[in-house]
Amino acid sequence: MLKEAIYHRPKDAFAYAYDERTLHIRLRTKKDDVDAVYLLFGDPYVWKDDAWQFDKQPMQKSGCDALFDYWFIAVQPPYRRLRYGFELHAGEDMLIYTEKGFYKKAPTDDTAYYFCFPFLNRIDVFHAPSWVKDTVWYQIFPERFANGNPHLNPPNTLPWGSVDPTTTSFFGGDFEGIIAQLDYLVELGINGIYFTPIFKAPSNHKYDTIDYFEIDPQFGDKQTFKRLVEACHAKGIRVMLDAVFNHSGYYFAPFQDVLKNGAKSRYKDWFHIREFPLQTEPIPNYDTFAFVPEMPKLNTEHPEVKQYLLDVATYWIREFDIDGWRLDVANEVDHQFWREFRQAVKAIKPDVYILGEIWHDAMPWLRGDQFDAVMNYPFTNGALNYFAKENVKANEFAYTIMNVWHNYPQNVNEVAFNLLGSHDTPRILTQCGERKEKVKLMFTFQLSFSGSPCIYYGDEIGLTGGQDPLCRKCMVWEKEKQDRDIFTHVQKLIALRKQYRALRFGEFHMLEANDKTNHIAYVKTYDDETIVCLLNNADTSLTWTVPFSLKDKTVINLWTNECLAEQTITIEPYGFRMLLVQPTSAV
Predict the structure, then answer these.
(1) What is the C-alpha separation between 554 and 538, in angstroms, rounded?
(2) H or E, element range at 80
(3) Which residue is catalytic, options 143, 357, 414, 459?
(4) Dihedrals phi, psi of 263, to nearest 5 degrees
(5) What is the mean pLDDT of residues 57-73?
(6) Domain CATH code at residue 18
(7) Listed residue (265, 299, 297, 270) closest to 284, CA to CA
(8) 3-state DSSP helix/strand/coil % of the chain, to nearest 5
(9) Where are the alpha helices (DSSP H) in 424-509?
(10) Is 50 helix (H, G, I), strand (E, B) or coil?
(11) Quick one: 490 and 341 in the same domain?
(12) Average pLDDT of 104-118?
């Protein structure tokens, strides 16, 4: 056994409280290096004849990536505290792995050898809103979704969808337009909307806020927004807004005061200013988002800034009953601010959803004291590389997904925000070379994966577009111009997801990944539900043999509702199967 590859630490994704009684423990070993792993565990205060007493249970191999195997077990310590180690087997070799190193025999003279989970405190358990597990999100860029009140149009508004969008163009999307189209979202099966910023700002994207307490007049007023939220709630749709707290806009009143009064401004410490007077060329002499001079970075450590932003966060929940905040550029804001943010918003609405925009490993924000979830871009990039761009084959994709799965605790994975596209990425149909069969396969994977999936407006009817701003086209409302084939595909996937708990939040296991045929198969399990998903990501038919006996089992094709009669089946190019496996006696 390669000792250098064996890894565990008693925190984060490797040891965590799943609920108030249950600990989840993981171990990492070199890929294909270890045959079996057992957990040695016990209460640190249970001794007999001067020897520490422990139990031994087998761990399950929960998956692998390109370099490592992962092992898993769930245990319920009777006194909510635990000391533990690992017994590893490879052929005739056996090792005991503890916090103090490796041993040939399990030490019993002192518990200090072992890893320690000191106590399972209820307040330390990661808790995210349970409703998120059942939510299918729909991201709306308000300026481009629907124009319901032309009287609100900004100057020089263009006819709806008349030309491709630019960074400065306006088409007049507003709240009235969204209200008018809510039944469309209900028809699709959506029960959550994520809005990009709606607050007063000069741009079409609104990430350059002027006033965090005011709706941008091109969208409507507060009364209209309140009516929008109430209409959503009446149809069972949750509402999440975008909080741009890393930076303000250039015309934000405190920043304008600094521009006017320089070092004498009472707001000078609201920002990160290196010298006066302020200048924007060649790069700003004040911190910004990227080097964008119109987006000065806020000093969230400053007490007045902190209070102002916390007042913003609580105001929109208290006055308008929103259900979530998506936090823009969340990784560049200090952790202490987010801890206080969580406490403030959860005090008003305990089940509000806090979603951070973080594109990389986000474990430091997901320990239960800051965010409920992050935008799962590693999932996004893995799916795009495999299905759309064909940059990787089945095995590498499987390794990517299993790495994503093992990177966070299970209760974090259950509410992860899994997206395929957004206002920051090219349209998925464009990335698929406008081959809609690939788009349908991507949606099949997304909507059968655990977590909280999000559909970017228009992807479900075949909108195309390159990188921003082209990915922000006007929504197409003429049915004859929509790809209704993609729409009905997504609609059916959402309906199946709502029907089967295994699809929503079941345990995920990769069953097969074959580079030669470029297909993957995986299993979703939840209680008594088992669903096998097979995806043929190739332009040739796939002949596949079901890897278990059909005897005493009833296997139902969920897409056609037909029973599977043969052990070997043929899947069309870019086709898929979703197979519900049940004991025959249960049918």
Answers:
(1) 28
(2) none
(3) 357
(4) -65, -15
(5) 97
(6) 2.60.40.10
(7) 297
(8) 30, 25, 45
(9) 428-431, 436-446, 484-499, 501-505
(10) coil
(11) yes
(12) 97
Q: Which of 328, 340, 414, 459 is catalytic?
A: 328
Instruction: Return the structure tokens found at 369.
Output: 């004291």
The number of beta carbons lying within 10 Å of the beta carbon of residue 342 is: 19
Tokens linked to 294: 């119109």
Whether residue 129 is contained in a domain is answered as: no
Residues 501-535 pLDDT 10s: 999 999 999 999 999 999 999 999 999 999 999 99
- Whether 515 is a known active-site residue: answer no
10 Å Cβ neighbour count for 329? 18
Dig out the tokens for 293 from the structure.
Answer: 């001079």
In contact, 38 and 57? CB cutoff 8 Å: yes
Alpha carbons 260 and 158: distance in angstroms, whole number: 35
Alpha-carbon distance 44 to 114, whole Å? Answer: 9
Structure tokens at 333: 């804001």
What SS3 state is found at 284? coil
Q: Is the pLDDT of residue 566 over 60?
A: yes
Q: Which residues contact 188 (CB under 8 A, 6 or more apart)?
A: 138, 455, 460, 487, 490, 491, 494
Assigned domain for 165 exists: yes
Alpha helices in 266-333 (DSSP H): 303-320
Residue 101 and residue 142 in one domain: no
Q: How far apart are CA 366 and CA 381, in angstroms?
A: 20
Total-model pTM: 0.95
* pLDDT in the model for residue 114: 98
Is residue 479 in some structural domain?
yes
What does the H/E/C string look like for 128-140? CCHHHHHCCEEEE
Q: Judge whether 328 counts as a catalytic residue.
A: yes
As a whole number, mean pLDDT of residues 5-33 equals: 97
First and final C-alpha spacing in the chain: 46
CA–CA distance from 122 to each of 21, 127, 371 (Å)? 9, 10, 18
Q: What is the pLDDT of residues 347-373, one digit of tens each?
A: 999 999 999 999 999 999 999 999 999
**253 and 382 share a domain?**
no
In the chain, the number of structural domains is 4
Q: How far apart are CA 301 and CA 133, in angstroms?
A: 33
8-state DSSP, 587: -
- Round to whole Å and give the CA distance between 389 and 537: 12
State the Cα–Cα distance between residues 555 and 561, nearest whole angstrom. 10
Tokens linked to 220: 């409507």
